[in-house]
């Protein structure tokens, strides 16, 4: 039986249990999602990518449908520290929201469990939930309709099984000063799939920043202590940024080779909205990120940064799609990969400028370093333009460290390893320089340096997984 | 307000950039019944008097093709082609018994400016205004529909050991050479259209340059579709032996018709050690009328294999015609230190759609490649660059540079770029750059300020924009390509 059929069957047989452990507002979407999944199926791998979602999803995983409580309290389980970065920390263990560190609750906005949010504010949830993930984007041209950035089937699978997750809801006019940090931990003692859902709503003139740190535990399997179980996170993120609102949204990934991620992020920006988005993979297992960013009204701006430092047999696909639907919008995309050992990376970036989106300013850059003969990098920077008064460019390079610079440093007495490290670090620096949270920027620089020195093992120093 | 009227007038004139080669020649033509099946394949082979191995090659291709779905990944909207409504073989009947070319055909080529009389060429007697106009030092292979009509200067070239003849003759006269190389660069099962071509291919050119010979003149093939309800499926094979050099040109035109005619060619180039091949195309198939009716579907497979060390291939193409262009002249750089170049200008106007680019497959060490692609879109057209740069694990020291620029001349057209880089060797240095913009208003203003009309200014700027590519064409071609460019974009500024 195909993977999608098995999931649908599982849903049908366990419907009562799934519904009971979630909220009615979320349950309302399941039937439709099952229908979509049946119709769409799970997408076959795209050409020129490394991660096969169908294959990842067809393995046998446990699901925590009955919502068994995670055994330990949140802070015993995990601490994550970015020095001098004062954040409100929220915890997500697998898909389950387990609490936060807020001493004084700020009642102007909501940050917390998706299930709770759906129970408390079903009408707000309904206005946003599944609005982006549940629909196929109409690109307005028959030719480009053949390309799909996000998979409808994968999103439907998420909607069908999703019980909990995280919500950040900032109502109009509210500025959240303190950055929020969401720590998402994959933790299981058998092969496990976490169906995660994130919903970020920043209403008109509001402002917030959110940092998501993703980790995976390395507990051994219950029945075989010598192996680490396969952990898969199936994540769907929907982000809405209202008129003249501002959002910083950074995602930091520190997985290990048994942790897989199939992530789909949908972002919609309204008039004059500004979003800074970052995808930082310090270590990845097998990861596929898909991002669909819509600039729906004039003067919206988006900055998208991506970074990956991969070694071992790690593999990472980033598939991005920036859709300029209105005049005078700006987008700037910068992705950098450093591939070592047998790592594989791919970057598929597509920019669409629709008819009438004049004065669009869209730039895309993808730069990659391959360090060993066993690495493989695929870059596909694509531009699709239907308006004439635009400035669009893309550039992509794949290469190695500048031998002259290396030589120069060595003549000045810098050991080769150190010189290489410095060059790699310099290569990555402009992806990090764009971050708008100063302390995080410093911290990330520190982490990347450690990463290149080989001192980073699955978690940032300061973070503890038990 | 006045300016607006002006623009409107200009737009109204949009049709005046007429297709010059849209006439038909009235000659008696032998056309086989429409449709495609094994019998048709056998009939074509029989008509051409081919040996059995060629027939088997065709049948093998046909059987595979029949099972394949039509590819749809191109950024173009190709209507379903009804293969039952196409005749796969059409040839002008020769009126005179002594093998001479039909005078009507001769007149046609005169009209097109293709010199088929060697004497005339020397006098520079060719008609004006065509791609091969005034080409004095050039051997021509002229092909109408499915049959080659005449190949000039064969004897002179034969003195040097160069073989330049139609493909059909080559199969008969040099079967060993053809058998050795046919399908080696573009295998039968390479893709849907190459398989179709392999099943029903008609005449094309065959070129063999022996070791150490530098071909003293440009070799040219001129393709013309004449009959209606037919397609053209030519096959060209060029072999450059060790340390040889050849420059080869290709031109094509078709009459204006409301139907969409199919052109699915295969070009194979095999380059040995230290040899160099320069392949230039000025593609000017009928592009359809201003409403997008009619026009040629140009779905071709062109590939060169740089098999030898230090071998070199250079593709230059100026694409102005065809309703649909789906074409990726590619280089397989197998030899160490081999090099591949691709220079392209693609102009689309009205409802034309082009999806064109190249593939550079680096297998040999220190192989290098360079891609310069310039797209110009006007009217309601769609113009895409699609390219692949692939570096295999054993290819150390590879260098690639890709630049593709798009120029938009109207707000109803589209310009797209779909490059792929697949790098499996850390020593490779691969760069890709692309920009898309409309005509620089400052440049336009500057020209107008100096009394140059808007239209001429656009033509001037586009000419400058395409210069990097056009300058790579042989001189005779370059002048005409430039003219063709300004003609294609004429009145498209709005």
Walk me through this protein's architecture:
The complex is a heterodimer of chains A (466) and B (494). With 466 residues, chain A is of the alpha/beta class. Chain A has one domain. Chain A contains twelve helices and 21 strands. Chain A has helices at 3-13, 15-20, 24-27, 30-40, 53-58, 74-77, 114-120, 122-128, 152-161, 403-411, 416-433, 438-452; strands at 78-79, 88-93, 96-100, 110-113, 166-170, 180-186, 192-202, 207-216, 231-241, 246-254, 259-269, 274-283, 286-295, 301-310, 315-324, 330-339, 344-353, 360-370, 376-385, 390-399, 464-465. In chain A, α10 packs across α11. The two termini of chain A are 37 Å apart. The mean pLDDT of chain A is 87. With 494 residues, chain B is α/β, with parallel strands linked by helices. Helices cover 24% and strands 33% of the residues of chain B. The longest helix of chain B has 17 residues, at 454-470. Mean pLDDT of chain B is 83; it is low at 1-16 and 119-136. At the A-B interface, β19 and β20 of A face β22 and β23 of B.
Largest interface: A-B, 41 and 39 residues
Strand-pairing-aware structural class of chain A: alpha/beta
Radius of gyration of chain B: 22 Å
Count of discrete alpha- or pi-helical segments spanning 4 or more residues of chain B = 12
Number of strands of chain A: 21
Low-pLDDT stretches of chain B are 1-16, 119-136
Q: Report the mean per-residue pLDDT of chain B as an integer.
A: 83
Question: Radius of gyration of chain A from the CA trace?
Answer: 21 Å
User: Strand count, sense and closure of the main sheet of chain A?
Assistant: 10 strands, mixed
Outline type of chain A:
globular
The proportion of residues in beta strands of chain B is: 25-35%
Percent of residues of chain B in helical segments?
10-25%
| Tally of DSSP helical segments of chain A | 12
């Amino acid at each position: 039986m195909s993977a999608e059929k098995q999931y649908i069957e599982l849903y049908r047989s366990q419907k009562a249990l799934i519904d009971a452990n979630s909220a009615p507002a979320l349950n309302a979407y399941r039937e439709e999602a099952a229908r979509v999944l049946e119709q769409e199926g799970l997408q076959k791998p795209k050409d020129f990518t490394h991660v096969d979602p169908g294959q990842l999803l067809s393995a046998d995983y446990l699901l925590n449908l009955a919502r068994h409580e995670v055994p330990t309290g949140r802070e015993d389980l995990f601490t994550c520290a970015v020095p001098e970065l004062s954040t409100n920390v929220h915890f997500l263990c697998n898909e389950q929201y387990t609490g936060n560190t807020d001493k004084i609750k700020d009642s102007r906005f909501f940050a917390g469990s998706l299930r709770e949010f759906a129970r408390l504010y079903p009408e707000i949830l309904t206005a946003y939930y599944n609005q982006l993930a549940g629909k196929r984007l109409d690109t307005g041209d028959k030719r480009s309709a053949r390309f799909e950035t996000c998979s409808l089937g994968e999103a439907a699978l998420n909607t069908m099984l999703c019980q909990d997750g995280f919500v950040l809801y900032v109502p109009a006019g509210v500025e959240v000063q303190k950055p929020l940090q969401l720590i998402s931990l994959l933790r299981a003692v058998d092969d496990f799939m976490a169906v995660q859902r994130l919903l970020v709503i920043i209403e008109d003139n509001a402002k917030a920043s959110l940092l998501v740190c993703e980790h995976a535990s390395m507990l051994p399997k219950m029945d075989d202590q010598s192996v680490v179980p396969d952990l898969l996170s199936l994540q769907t993120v929907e982000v809405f940024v209202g008129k003249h609102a501002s959002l910083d949204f950074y995602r930091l990934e520190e997985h290990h080779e048994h942790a897989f991620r199939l992530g789909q992020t949908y972002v919609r920006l309204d008039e004059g909205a500004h979003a800074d988005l970052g995808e930082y993979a310090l270590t990845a297992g097998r990861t596929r990120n898909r991002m669909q960013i819509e600039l729906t009204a004039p003067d919206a701006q988006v900055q998208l940064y991506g970074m990956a430092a991969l070694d071992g047999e790690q593999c990472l696909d980033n598939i991005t799609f920036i859709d300029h639907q209105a005049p005078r919008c700006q987008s700037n995309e910068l992705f950098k990969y450093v591939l070592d050992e047998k790592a594989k990376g791919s970057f598929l970036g597509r920019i669409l400028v629709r008819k009438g989106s004049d004065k669009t300013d869209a730039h895309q850059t993808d730069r990659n370093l391959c360090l060993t003969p066993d690495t493989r990098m695929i870059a596909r920077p694509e531009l699709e333009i239907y308006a004439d008064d635009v400035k669009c460019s893309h550039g992509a390079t794949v290469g190695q460290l500048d031998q002259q610079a290396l030589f120069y440093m060595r003549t000045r007495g810098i050991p080769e390893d150190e010189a290489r490290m410095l060059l790699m670090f310099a290569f990555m620096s402009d992806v990090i320089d764009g971050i708008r949270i100063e302390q995080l920027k410093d911290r990330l620089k520190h982490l990347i340096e450690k990463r290149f020195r080989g001192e980073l093992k699955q978690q940032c120093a300061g973070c503890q997984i038990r | 307000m006045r300016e607006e009227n002006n623009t409107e007038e200009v737009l109204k004139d949009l049709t005046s950039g007429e297709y010059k080669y849209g006439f038909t020649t009235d000659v008696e033509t032998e056309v086989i019944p429409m449709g495609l099946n094994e019998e048709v394949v056998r009939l074509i082979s029989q008509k051409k008097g081919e040996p059995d191995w060629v027939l088997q090659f065709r049948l093998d291709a046909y059987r595979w093709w029949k099972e394949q779905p039509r590819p749809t990944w191109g950024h173009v909207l190709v209507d379903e082609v009804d293969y039952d409504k196409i005749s796969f073989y059409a040839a002008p009947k020769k009126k005179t018994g002594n093998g001479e070319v039909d005078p009507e055909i001769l007149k046609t080529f005169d009209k097109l400016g293709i010199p088929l009389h060697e004497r005339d060429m020397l006098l520079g007697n060719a008609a004006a205004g065509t791609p091969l106009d005034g080409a004095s030092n050039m051997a021509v292979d002229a092909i109408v529909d499915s049959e080659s009509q005449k190949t000039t200067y064969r004897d002179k070239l034969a003195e040097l050991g160069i073989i330049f003849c139609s493909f059909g003759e080559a199969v008969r006269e040099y079967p060993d050479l053809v058998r050795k190389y046919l399908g080696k660069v573009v295998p039968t099962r390479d893709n849907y259209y190459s398989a179709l071509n392999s099943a029903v291919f008609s005449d094309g050119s065959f070129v063999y340059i022996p070791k150490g010979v530098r071909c003293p003149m440009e070799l040219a093939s001129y393709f013309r579709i004449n009959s209606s309800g037919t397609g053209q499926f030519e096959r060209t094979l060029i072999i450059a032996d060790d340390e040889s050099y050849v420059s080869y040109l290709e031109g094509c035109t078709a009459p204006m018709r409301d139907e969409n005619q199919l052109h699915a060619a295969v070009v194979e180039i095999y380059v040995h050690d230290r040899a160099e091949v320069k392949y230039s195309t000025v593609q000017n198939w009928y592009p359809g009328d201003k409403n997008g009716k009619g026009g040629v579907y140009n779905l071709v497979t062109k590939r060169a294999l740089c098999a030898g060390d230090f071998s070199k291939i250079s593709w230059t193409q100026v694409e102005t015609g065809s309703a649909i262009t789906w074409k990726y002249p590619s280089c397989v750089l197998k030899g160490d230190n081999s090099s591949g170049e691709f220079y392209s200008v693609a102009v689309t106007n009205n409802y034309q759609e082009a999806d064109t680019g190249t593939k550079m497959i680096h297998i040999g060490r220190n192989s290098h490649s360079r891609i310069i692609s310039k797209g110009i879109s006007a009217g309601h057209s769609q113009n895409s660059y699609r390219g692949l740069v692939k570096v295999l694990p054993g290819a150390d020291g590879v260098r690639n540079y890709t630049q593709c620029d798009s120029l938009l001349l109207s707000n109803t057209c589209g310009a797209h770029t779909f490059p792929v880089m697949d790098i499996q060797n850390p020593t490779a240095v691969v760069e890709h750059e692309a920009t898309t913009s409309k005509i620089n208003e400052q440049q336009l203003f500057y020209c107008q300020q100096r009394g140059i009309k808007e239209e001429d200014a656009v033509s001037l700027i586009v000419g400058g924009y395409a210069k990097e590519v056009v300058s790579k064409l042989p001189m005779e071609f370059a002048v005409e390509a430039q003219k063709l460019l300004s003609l294609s974009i004429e009145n498209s500024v709005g």
